[in-house]
Amino acid sequence: MTISIRSVQKTFGRFPALNDVSLEIAPGELLALLGPSGSGKTTLLRAIAGLEYPDSGQILFETEDVTYAGAARRGVGFVFQQYALFKHMTVAKNVAFGLDVRKGAAKPSKTEIAARVDELLKLVELGDLGKRFPSQLSGGQRQRVALARALAVSPRVLLLDEPFGALDATVRKSLRKELRRIHDATGVTTIFVTHDQEEALELADRVAILNQGQIEQVGTPSEVHDNPANPFVCGFVGEANRFEGAVRDGRFVSGGVTLAAPGLADGPAVGFVRPYDIALDGKGFEVRVERVGIDGAVAHVDLVTPQGERLEAQVSREQGRSLAAGAALHAESRQAHIYSL
Ligand SMILES: Nc1ncnc2c1ncn2[C@@H]1O[C@H](COP(=O)(O)OP(=O)(O)OP(=O)(O)O)[C@@H](O)[C@H]1O
């Protein structure tokens, strides 16, 4: 189902939580809403769910205007960060809940419900745990149950608000892959809120980056990472060294750091270089190695220019091992992102 968000505005008191937000989500797409705390992600998700109403603007499901429709009418499945499972019900009963509460002809038979619960528990790989209670599950398992429960009613759209936020890093990573697999198996249009850029880039088909109630950029993970539209996106998506300086004659200069800035007009600018876009192979501006930290297959090298600018390069483990603190080198960026101010 296509979801269209058109010029949505939402103010709490005098604070604009959403400021003229427009966004189109394609059928079957997995879209991440990414942004820092307070940027409006949850407010936008709640407006799509029908748990919050915009002050102005429109939300369409296909051609149906649902801007002021109640949550129940929209056919959305919702998963929150906090496990909202019913503690006194078994896993199977939790998953069945949305079907059990249906009335009259809309309610499937007992056998149908049991079959659907079985199918969903298999899908989230909890096939054997239907008889357990939520208190007998790990945090990751509870979120799988929450996901199965949200999917039970065959929602038109699945909305997830930081669903893995309360879990540890390893469980988060594996559930991320699970969610992608489940999404691919069900094909349900999914919107996923996160403040974790790695999670958004790894999981989503497209990422919408929010900042102070506005959308800064929408694009595929590669587009927002490789071609960030503005300094905010560049600093927020992927790691980056940031320098303030000026462009003169096609070069950006910030103290001892120089970067190629072809085609940019002379004047004040801000430049970003990703640590893995810095080459330490004898060319470029002068730097001194302050520290080398080996982290698995890569090495993080802290560098300082003679004028005092600090930057980090990421090189191979082998190259990192060959570098000693105090060594004088030359650094060159393979790719930089420079924005006129
Ligand atoms: N019910 C409310 N009443 C007043 N202000 C609110 C309300 N809900 C949200 N806000 C404010 O609106 C802004 C956006 O909040 P929102 O929860 O959408 O941000 P978020 O990007 O989801 O943040 P987080 O990642 O911290 O959850 C925040 O400044 C928040 O304080």
UniProtKB/TrEMBL annotation:
Keywords: ATP-binding, Nucleotide-binding, Sulfate transport, Translocase, Transport
Pfam families named in the record: ABC_tran, CysA_C_terminal
All residue ranges annotated as the ABC transporter domain in the record: 3-237
A Gene Ontology cellular-component term: ATP-binding cassette (ABC) transporter complex
Keyword Isomerase found: no
GO biological process: one example: quaternary ammonium group transport
One term of GO molecular function: ATP binding
InterPro entries (UniProt xref): AAA+_ATPase, ABC_SmlMolc_Importer, ABC_transporter-like_ATP-bd, ABC_transporter-like_CS, CysA_C, Mo/tungstate-bd_C_term_dom, P-loop_NTPase, Sulph_transpt1
Protein name: Sulfate ABC transporter ATP-binding protein
